[in-house]
């Protein structure tokens, strides 16, 4: 598990290093930040790493996210995002696949763009709360016939915290985002189902 996290963080660091030449491009923040009263739509695809006891026998999986952002007047540098996300992890028990687990999330996040001078690059932080539906399905090879549908699920609230890099490539903005997601619900005796999603996406500000 530690090796997977280390490789993923190294990959994230490499992405940041590759993005750093943008700091010398100049051009100011115009067109990068969401102005008061503006809306934007986001979409991303990436990968997610399950953590802790939840990650036992689970592999790195696919992560998808779609969102809408709004900057209400009078909130200063803060604006908000509503999102729907989905992560799917395969399960491997020894030498064979034994099923899968997935997490469907509905998050409401607050975002803050850090001010940078003479660059189009945008660095931002975000945090929020959400509703998470965690489920798992066993394959027919390991499923006990006594369990209907060979599946289990749990729904509860959770938290998330993260940061990202955003850069305009007209008419969209490309972004890379890393977050820690902590659903405060789990399968069986688990009280949580933490995971790291690494997201690569695009944002479009609605004129």
Can you walk through the features of this model?
This protein has one helix at 2-19, and strands at 39-50, 61-70, 78-93, 96-114, 122-138, 151-169, 172-183, 195-206. It has one domain (2-206): Porin, CATH 2.40.160. It is elongated. The protein contains one helix and eight strands, in the order H-E-E-E-E-E-E-E-E. The chain is mostly beta strands and 207 residues long. The longest helix is centred in the first third of the chain and has 18 residues, at 2-19. The chain starts with a helix and ends with a strand. Strands 1-2-3-4-5-6-7-8 form an eight-stranded antiparallel barrel.
In short:
The protein is mainly beta and 207 residues long. The chain is built from one helix and eight strands; from the N terminus they run αββββββββ.
Topology, pairings included?
Blueprint: H1 2-19, E1 39-50, E2 61-70, E3 78-93, E4 96-114, E5 122-138, E6 151-169, E7 172-183, E8 195-206
Antiparallel strand pairs: 1-2, 1-8, 2-3, 3-4, 4-5, 5-6, 6-7, 7-8
Fraction of residues in β-strands: over 45%
Relative helix content: under 10%
Tell me the number of structural domains. Answer: 1
The shape, in one word, is elongated
Low-confidence stretches: 11-30
CATH architecture: Beta Barrel
**Physical arrangement of strands within the biggest beta sheet:** 1-2-3-4-5-6-7-8
SS-derived structural category: mainly beta
Q: What oligomeric assembly is this protein in?
A: single chain
Counting DSSP E segments of at least 2 residues, the number of strands comes to 8
CATH top level? Mainly Beta
User: H/E element string?
Assistant: HEEEEEEEE
Summed over residues and divided by their number, the pLDDT gives a mean of 85
Distance between the termini: 44 Å
Largest sheet: 8 strands, antiparallel, barrel
Rg is 19 Å
In DSSP terms, counting alpha (H) and pi (I) runs of 4 or more, how many helices? 1
Topology-level CATH name: Porin
């Amino acid at each position: 598990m530690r090796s997977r996290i280390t490789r993923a963080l190294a990959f994230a660091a490499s992405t940041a290093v590759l993005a750093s030449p943008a700091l010398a491009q100049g051009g100011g923040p115009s067109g990068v930040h969401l102005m008061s009263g503006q809306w934007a739509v986001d979409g991303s695809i990436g990968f997610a790493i399950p953590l802790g006891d939840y990650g036992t026998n689970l592999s790195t999986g696919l992560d998808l996210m779609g969102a809408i952002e709004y900057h209400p007047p009078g909130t200063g540098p803060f604006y908000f995002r509503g999102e729907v996300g989905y992560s799917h992890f395969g399960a491997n028990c020894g030498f064979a696949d034994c099923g899968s687990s997935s997490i469907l999330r509905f998050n409401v996040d607050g975002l803050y763009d850090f001010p940078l001078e003479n660059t189009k690059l945008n660095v931002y932080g975000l945090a929020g709360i959400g509703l998470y539906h965690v489920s798992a399905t066993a394959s027919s090879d390991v499923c006990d016939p006594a369990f209907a549908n060979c599946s289990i699920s749990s729904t509860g609230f959770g938290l998330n915290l993260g940061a990202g890099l955003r850069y305009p490539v007209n008419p969209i903005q490309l972004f890379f985002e890393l977050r820690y997601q902590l659903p405060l619900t789990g399968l069986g005796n688990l009280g949580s189902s933490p995971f790291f999603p690494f997201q690569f996406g695009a944002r479009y500000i609605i004129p």
